[in-house]
Amino acid sequence: MIQDSETVDAFLARHASDVEETVRQAAALEIMPRWQRLAAHEIDQKAGPHDLVTDADRKAERYLTEQLVALLPGSVVVGEEAVHANPASYEAIRGEGPVWIVDPVDGTRQFVHGETGFCTLVALALRGVVLASWTYAPAREQFATAIRGQGAFLEGERLHAGPPEPGRDLRVATSHPDYTTQEQKRALLGLWTKGVAPRACGSAGLEYLAVARGESDATAFSWEAAWDHAAGLLLVEEAGGTHLTRTGEPFRITGGNDLPFTAARDAATARQVAALLSGGAA
């Protein structure tokens, strides 16, 4: 089994483009043929009316699981739908071998409504460190990639988030209230202050891409599911941004974070948002 980062780096040097093609094929075969064509029997609820799953989610995840493991023998997949069926499978993120972290359709609610704000997220991690990520929004024809230490790219163009423009309110995408505890709601209320313009988030993957592009300034999220965050966090990092929990530590995909946390386009913005979430000032 592959257990060292140098071997994974060698794999990425040879096969990063193969992973991209696999993600594109999953969308072409299993997702886009169902977009704006879903029948009622192809849509189910998981935890409630805002937590949807479709045949596109299930079939795309199965396709990605088969193809990614074949590309990297000895790897395992932690996918949103597989973990829903078997929560214990999430523990593989904390294991010793390489892990593919997969969200087949991030933004399922938008997908169900026939909107364009959904994407497929794939990240490759080893011992809790995300080494590469792929973010594909097929309805918007946007494909973003990142490899640790090599930068973030959108359609081949390097991304540089840069600091926010001075003198305007910070644009911060926040967790939907339905997915927050009372304590997290109180923490998020810290963003309702002068100089900050919070709004409810859409697809987490696309919110991270907006930060990496400098279109948004930060996120403030209150849940830990690695398939929503792993790909986007690396994208933000490689575009020059950073991420912090309320205690000022980087977010860990292995869990145990003080929530909510932020990912921001630069370190100063991350510190400012994290301070507001913890009830203080930067």
Account of the 3D structure:
The chain has 8 helices and 14 strands. 34% of the residues lie in helices and 26% in strands. Strands 3-4-5-6-7-8-9 form a 7-stranded mixed beta sheet, sandwiched between helices. The chain folds into 2 domains: 5-158, Fructose-1,6-Bisphosphatase, subunit A, domain 1 (Fructose-1,6-Bisphosphatase, Chain A, domain 1, 2-Layer Sandwich); 170-277, D-Maltodextrin-Binding Protein, domain 2 (3-Layer(aba) Sandwich), CATH 3.40.190.80. It has helices at 5-31, 55-71, 80-85, 108-112, 182-188, 204-213, 226-238, 267-277, and strands spanning 43-48, 51-54, 76-79, 98-106, 119-126, 129-137, 142-147, 151-154, 157-158, 170-174, 196-200, 218-221, 242-245, 261-264. The longest helix has 27 residues, at 5-31. Helix 6 packs parallel to helix 7.
Q: Strand count, sense and closure of the main sheet?
A: 7 strands, mixed
User: In CATH's first tier, which class of the largest domain applies?
Assistant: Alpha Beta
CATH topology of the largest domain, by name, is Fructose-1,6-Bisphosphatase, Chain A, domain 1
The CATH superfamily name of the largest domain is Fructose-1,6-Bisphosphatase, subunit A, domain 1
Overall morphology = globular
- Element order: H for helix, E for strand: HEEHEHEHEEEEEEHEHEHEEH
Main sheet strand line-up? 3-4-5-6-7-8-9
Number of strands: 14
Taken as a percent bin, the fraction of beta residues is 25-35%
What fraction, in percent, of the residue positions are helical? 25-40%
What is the radius of gyration computed over CA atoms, rounded to a whole number of angstroms?
A: 18 Å
Please identify the structural class as seen in this structure: alpha+beta
Spatial separation of the terminal alpha carbons = 45 Å
Mean pLDDT: 92
When the domains are counted, the total is 2
Helix run count: 8
Which stretches are low in confidence, meaning pLDDT under 50 for 5 or more residues running? none
Give me the CATH architecture of the largest domain, please: 2-Layer Sandwich
